[in-house]
Amino acid sequence: MGSYKTVLYPRTNWLNTIPVCSYTKKLAEDKLGIEKPNRPLTPFFKFMTQMRPALIAKNPGITSKEAIAWSSKHWQELDSETTTQMVKEYEKDLEDYKKIKEMYEASLTEQQKEDIKRVKAEMAAEKEKRKLEAEFKELGKPKKPMSSYFLYAQTKKDILKDISMKEYQEKVKADWLKLPESERTKYEKQAQALMDKYKKDIEAWEMKMIAIGRTDLVRHKPVRQPKKTKVDKYE
Length: 235
What we know:
This protein has helices at 28-32, 43-58, 64-76, 80-107, 110-138, 148-154, 165-178, 181-211. α2 crosses α3 and α6 (148-154) packs across α8. By secondary structure, it is mainly alpha-helical. 7% of the residues are buried. Residues 1-24 have low confidence and may be disordered. The protein contains 8 helices and no strands.
């Protein structure tokens, strides 16, 4: 890998293109440390990339949306000779890219192909999870309450500032094991009360979702009752 950069054509500046925006999508290959050739920017995005440094220098607080709007306006004002030249360069770059991409794909081992496929699936699942969580938040889905153990742990947060997270977890676990039954029962009752409220809230929320046609967000199983905390769950 890497040798493809010096093959084919001398005009390879686009291989090291600057991302157009700070939200450029991260590839599975990036996570695996595999250097994948970049597809050339279209004429408009190449123009926007070239204009971006000067635009930000003059307008430090400009948003991505505003930058795109500004670039779009000025792109439309470009003379035909300039845009025609940029289109020709893009077409040439695209030809180079297709040949370099073939060389890149031929250089991948079977293990690398499997790793890329796996990471892509993981990234897609994580993206879908974030999307669903954002949707739940927007729709006001009630959050499942904490267990009795974590309710107790919340009362010990003040000691976290003086010790590491690992030490904190070990101390809280040890203190929980020493807690008198009467004290532990207090937290279990509190957890049960929160769970009872959660059950009512989630059922009401689900009825609302059904009413607006979002049955895909409704559970297929009833809410489980909180179980008494077992020590091995926190090891």
